[in-house]
Design goal:
With 164 residues, the chain is an alpha+beta fold. The chain has a single domain, classed as Cupredoxins -  blue copper proteins (Immunoglobulin-like, Sandwich). 23% of the residues lie in helices and 34% in strands. The chain is built from three helices and ten strands. The radius of gyration is 21 Å and the shape is globular. Bound molecules: copper (II) ion.
Length: 164
């Protein structure tokens, strides 16, 4: 009797937990995702480019680095910068970080470039940009990077959008 009661409680708990698990298991990728483009409030308050510490590794990030959306979907980038510039650039499926080359301080590599976001500096320091319609109109893995060369080259400020 005692044993039966315990398994009954376990069954009730399992059923109660289902709604918590179902959305992540059953739902496919959404039509949109949001990414933080720059995390400049972490680390020290000193300009990281001067090599005095490693704060740039935490600051110059896309969070999360990889998101997934459906074909035809979009990604919104919440851009936040204190040091230098952030400028999201979207490259076509098949482009890798190793393919990127270009100028300084802005890379401006047009090979495979399919969308360009706003160039945001420390003042005002924030902007929100959503990829335009048609950016993710085919399945695959898209590279998104910061067009400010020090952020991309020294701190690996890039991420991915998986489209399926
Ligand atoms: Cu940047």
């Amino acid at each position: 009797m005692q044993r039966r009661k315990r398994s009954g409680i376990a069954a009730v708990l399992a059923v109660a937990a289902l709604p918590l698990l179902a959305p992540s298991v059953l739902a496919g990728p959404g039509t949109s995702a949001t990414v933080r483009f720059g995390h400049d409030d972490v680390g020290s308050s000193f300009p990281p480019i001067t090599d005095h510490d490693q704060s740039g590794n935490g600051k110059f990030n896309l969070i999360p680095r990889t998101v997934t959306v459906e074909v035809g979907g979009s990604v919104t980038y919440d851009i936040f910068v204190r040091f230098g510039f952030h400028q999201p650039m979207v490259y076509d499926v098949g482009t890798t970080p190793e393919d990127i080359s270009g100028g300084f301080p802005f890379i401006n590599d047009t090979g495979g470039l399919i969308a360009t976001g706003p160039r945001v500096s420390g003042s005002p320091g924030t902007a929100t940009w959503t990829t335009p319609p048609g950016t993710f109109d085919a399945p695959g893995r898209y590279l998104i990077l910061c067009n400010f060369a020090p952020h991309f080259a020294e701190f690996g400020m890039y991420g991915w959008v998986n489209v399926n």
